[in-house]
Amino acid sequence: MSAKEKTQPSRSTKVITGATAHDCGGRCPLKFHVKDGVVIRIEGDDAPEPQQLRACLRCRAYRQFVYHPARLKYPLKRTGARGEGKFERISWDEALDTIASELKRVKETYGNSAIFLVIGGGYLAALHSGPAVMARLLSMFGGYTTHYGNVSSEGCIWAVTAQYGTTLVGNSREDLLNSRLIIMWGWDPAKMISGTNTMFHLIQAKEVGAKIVAVDPIYTDSAAALADEWIPIRPGTDTAMMISMAYVMVKDNLHDELFLNKYTIGFDQFKDYVLGTEDGLEKTPKWAEAITGVPSATIERLATEYATIKPAALMDGMGPARSAMGEQFTRCAMTLAAMTGNVGIPGGHAGSGLMGLPVGHMFRSPAIPVPKNPVEAAAPSVRGSLDLIRRLVYRIHTNKIFDAMLTGKAGGYPADIKFVWFCCNNFLNQLGNTNKAAEALKKPEFIVVPELFMTPTAKFADILLPVSADIERNDLTRPWPSGPYYMYINKVIEPPGECKSDFEIACELAPRVGIHDYNDKTEDEWLRLLVSLAPDMAKDIPDYDKFRSEGIHRVKLPQPIVAFREQIEDPEKNPFPTPSGKIEIYSQRAAEINNPLCPPIPKYLGTWEDLNDPLAKKYPLQLITAHPKVRAHSTMHDVPWLKELVPQRLWINPADAEARGIKDGDEVMLFNDRGKVVIPAWITERIMPGVVCLYEGGWYQPDDKGIDRGGCANVLTKDEYSAGGASTLNTALVQVRKGG
Ligand SMILES: Nc1nc2c(c(=O)[nH]1)N[C@H]1C(S)=C(S)[C@@H](COP(=O)(O)OP(=O)(O)OC[C@H]3O[C@@H](n4cnc5c(=O)[nH]c(N)nc54)[C@H](O)[C@@H]3O)O[C@H]1N2
Ligand SMILES: Nc1nc2c(c(=O)[nH]1)N[C@H]1C(S)=C(S)[C@@H](COP(=O)(O)OP(=O)(O)OC[C@H]3O[C@@H](n4cnc5c(=O)[nH]c(N)nc54)[C@H](O)[C@@H]3O)O[C@H]1N2
Ligand SMILES: [Mo]
Predict the structure, then answer these.
(1) What value does the mean pLDDT of the chain take?
(2) Which pLDDT tens digit goes with each residue over 678-724?
(3) What is the number of the ligand 2 atom nearest to the C-alpha of 236?
(4) How remote is the CA of residue 152 from the centroid of ligand 3, in Å?
(5) CB 323 less than 6 A from any atom of ligand 1
(6) Quick check: CB of 628 below 6 Å from ligand 2?
(7) 398 lines ligand 2 (CB under 6 A)
(8) Residue 338, by phi and psi: left (phi above 0), alpha (psi -120 to 50) or beta?
(9) By the 8 A CB rule, do 709 and 640 touch?
(10) Do β-strands 264-265 and 229-231 pair in parallel, antiparallel, or remain unpaired?
(11) pTM of this prediction?
């Protein structure tokens, strides 16, 4: 049979285009071949290049996810201790009645602030989105406490808000073809995708001659596929290298003074810091070499190249910013982009890690309306504010939610938590300090988890509700921050057992807690309404039914989108949305916070658990916890094809392994004061000496001694945040020894 014949569906097979809505870095049209109500095959997009949106390995293995034998199918009630994983089946009526009576009891006994809604990115779509439907329900119920701080990118968000005044600062990815030099700085799109077609455009850029450099403690897949040069760097020290690059540019007069004068404020203060006029310390490449481990000659060369090869795109990732002082990394990247005049021009890049396009339709999803949360009724407006403290008056920092469960108001948090609803996350596993979190989860009076799987977090639920998967209901979703297209998630199959979506759960719970106007529409009525309410969608999608049957609507761009093009072309008419109207290398709003850890100009700042910390004597290795190629975080954890492809192992350099008598594949113990993980080692020169990497998302599986056997990176990380709000999941010192 020829390949062509093989892809032709038989007469009894239907092909439906749909999508998944994982927090995965991409968003891809998938063709589901359905026979007798079962998906028998999944194909990727077959549109012509360059519009074609190729799915990655994860959705190609999606059948093993959606048909996984461990899918939860019925409501469950806990019978063993929290975390033990012992449950018995109950009816939906019993589950919802129990939840309703607990909600009412907690509200009456403690007030609404004792109800804690903990939301994550497990499903990024418009209608069946757990976070939105639960916020709607709990607001109508009198309010709830929630958390603040994007676990992915809060450091980046703080930094762009300071410097540009907006978070939408990316270029459409085909613009990479205009770049002559591309620096992938803590950015690995071959793995984290960064918008479905990013790798496609990078490969094209390379083919037309762009030079590509990777700066990363890891020789990433992207570096292997694209880079002319790999520059390994000690984690958390990038700002020192960037500041010394600025030093080289200033000393050699390579910076773009016209650009700086016209579009920025505060470069002089930054220059004073760089040259040491401010503090007596010249930030020379030699200074940076001692901190970063990068040879000064390499720093000088990269500085010269970035300042002279035009246009150039410094693509700074979110990984280095997801660390203590992560904000400074992002601010430094943006400052270098301004010093080289690469902001707002084709082939350049404004920096910021976020890379979302500055057009509504490619970034902001429509969602079910959520009334104002009464518990936050008196909260001050924080729009444009850089003051984290103001945000944390009513909310709990995301990386502190378990600490808040433990200590409540006495610990300085806004509420004493009694009832917890985890929605679309596996945060026991995904936030810092998992052993401490597991202790904290013993404390609340009642915990609800709607889930597809018995995750480590789900094991702590009192009531566990079985949830349908992406392709088991209809919905709308959008590209992870790139584009340009919209997607309709078609319902392809029926959910297994008694699974319901979060929206269906909320609809059925509402009347039980006395809310009778929660929903008056069918799924289709909602989806049509949401399309019509989103101005850009309503404009771009004239024919809803066609959109629905095709599953995707592609938007034709007359030219690549370049963030800040208008600001650069006509700055008088189009100021930057900052208080000064300019790119703020010096931020007065940051100065007003008066916190030395959030200085008004970007700086290199030492931090806890860096190599200068006395703790480094005991725990000499720096742990980074990059995102896994074969999962979206902890989602798709048990998919056999994917597990086989990249088993969860500890990346360790041969020099560090040899010093510890470790051989490839040996079980090793990775530990610090927060916990112990036993996992096989992968000895590889793809990670620099002194640094080890354990992918985030391995499922926490403590044995009876409390040693994690599942490879959960957060057993080792800290439940702390940086001064601008970054969750500090890439800042942890550890030791490794042979044996379990
Ligand atoms: N050490 C370390 N930790 C990290 C990171 C890191 O870099 N290092 N990265 C962080 C980042 S960037 C992120 S975004 C977070 C992600 O952390 P989480 O948001 O916790 O993401 P997942 O682990 O994918 O868990 C999502 C869960 O949602 C469930 N789910 C899927 N669809 C639905 C649905 O419709 N309804 C319900 N109720 N549940 C659903 C899935 O089964 C899955 O268990 O992890 C963070 N944790
Ligand atoms: N396959 C896959 N793709 C994903 C996800 C996933 O779980 N799996 N998650 C999605 C989500 S929600 C998010 S937020 C994004 C996350 O996207 P990123 O934050 O960009 O991903 P990470 O893998 O955490 O980090 C990127 C790179 O930074 C490097 N790095 C870490 N610390 C440092 C440092 O101090 N300095 C330097 N120079 N480099 C450092 C890591 O080695 C890694 O190669 O990915 C999205 N895409
Ligand atoms: Mo994320």
Answers:
(1) 96
(2) 999 999 999 999 999 999 999 999 999 999 999 999 999 999 999 99
(3) 35
(4) 4
(5) no
(6) yes
(7) no
(8) alpha
(9) no
(10) unpaired
(11) 0.97
Which is nearest to 628 in space by CA: 618, 642, 614?
A: 642
457 contacts 422 by C-beta, under 8 angstroms: yes
In this predicted structure, which of 77-86, 363-372, 450-459, 515-524 has the lowest mean pLDDT?
363-372
- The ligand 1 atom at the shortest distance from the C-alpha of residue 120 is 19
Counting ligands in written order, the one closest to the CA of 23 is 2
Q: Ligand 1: which of 66, 68, 124, 430 to mutate, judged by most atoms within 8 Å of the beta carbon?
A: 430
Specify the residue with its C-alpha closest to ligand 2, atom 25.
319
Residue 502 Cβ inside 6 Å of ligand 1? The answer reads yes
Ligand 2: atom nearest CA of 121 is: 12
**What is the number of the ligand 1 atom nearest to the C-alpha of 713?**
1
Q: DSSP state, 721?
A: B
CA of 626 to the centre of ligand 2 (A): 5
Q: Whose CA is nearest to atom 2 of ligand 2?
A: 192
pLDDT at residue 141 greater than cutoff 90: yes
Domain boundaries, the chain: 76-148+366-477+485-554, 155-359+561-584, 614-738
- Annotation: CATH topology of 614-738: Barwin-like endoglucanases (2.40.40)
- At residue 1 the predicted structure's pLDDT band, cuts being 50, 70 and 90, is very low
Which CATH number is 76-148+366-477+485-554 given? 3.40.50.740
Q: Is the CB of 76 under 6 A from ligand 1?
A: no
DSSP assignment string, 320-381: TTSSTTHHHHHHHHHHHHHHTT-TTSTT-----S----SSGGGTPPP-------GGGTTPPP
The pLDDT value recorded for residue 539 is: 87
Q: What is the mean pLDDT of residues 621-629?
A: 98
Mean pLDDT throughout 596-620?
97
For residue 559, the 8-state DSSP code is: S
CA distances from 716 to 200, 433, 680, 713 (A): 35, 6, 16, 6
Confidence of residue 4 (pLDDT cuts 50, 70, 90): very low
Q: Which pairing describes strands 76-78 and 463-466: parallel, antiparallel, or unpaired?
A: antiparallel
Say what the pLDDT of residue 12 is.
Answer: 87
CA–centroid distance, 634 to ligand 1, in Å, is 6
Among 429, 627, 714, the mutation site with the greatest number of ligand 2 atoms within 8 A of its Cβ is: 627
Which is the CATH superfamily of the domain at 155-359+561-584?
A: Dimethylsulfoxide Reductase, domain 2 (3.40.228.10)
Q: Is the CB of 215 under 6 A from ligand 2?
A: yes
Ligand 1 close to Cβ of residue 698 (< 6 A): no
pLDDT of 367 over the 50 cut:
yes
pLDDT of residue 5: 44
Mean pLDDT of 74-84: 97
Most distant pair of Cα atoms in the chain: their distance: 78
Give the pLDDT score at 3: 44
**Residue nearest to ligand 1 atom 39, measured at CA:** 424
Q: Give the residue-averaged pLDDT of 367-375.
A: 94
Dihedral sign from CA coordinates of 465, 469, 470, 473? negative
Residues of the chain with pLDDT > 90, as a percent, come to: 92
* Other Cβ atoms closer than 10 A to 696: 23
Q: Which residue lies with its CA nearest to atom 13 of ligand 1?
A: 152
Question: From CA 399, how far away is CA 402, in angstroms rounded?
Answer: 8
Q: Which atom of ligand 1 is nearest to the CA of 319?
A: 7
How large is the average pLDDT for residues 563-582? 98
- Alpha carbon distance 283, 274 (integer Å): 5
353-367, 530-544, 665-679, 721-735: least confidently modelled range: 353-367
Query: Using H for helix, E for strand and C for coil, what is the string for 655-707?
Result: HHHHHCCCCCCCEEEEEECCEEEEEEEEECCCECCCEEEECCCCCCCECCCCC
Q: What is the pLDDT of residue 362?
A: 57
3-state secondary structure of 434: helix
